[in-house]
Amino acid sequence: ICFAFAPAIITAFRPDDPEVIRIGAFSLRLQACVLPLMSLTISTNMLHQSLAKSKVATFLALTRQGIYFIPLILILPSFFGLLGVQISQSIADVLSMLTAIPFVIRFFRHLSMEEKQLNWDLYNHE
After folding, report:
1. Could you read off the pLDDT of 9-25 as tens digits, one per residue?
2. At what angle do helices 82-125 and 70-80 cross, to 10 degrees?
3. How many domains does the chain have?
């Protein structure tokens, strides 16, 4: 919906400025493209919070806005101008998702080892 109606959404905030609508619509569409990726990052963060792994959860929370976005928003405009500003958040979101993947893999590997141990224990006690 955000992708398809990006110009209309931006127009609601600034109806009299076609340049703002053009720039804002492109930025909103970029965010709409990476929005599904954010679910993995957020879920991984919440998983580690619920497991009381606060260091990992804090690190994952910092990746999006602090570790990736701030350097990108400072560096990319020097090379790409306005486009650098527009793509910074989307790139930060993709990098955050890529950072979360190894933590998810590690969790499922650990979970699978625990399941094997539990099954082994149940089998040996019957």
Report:
1. 999 999 999 999 999 99
2. 140
3. 1
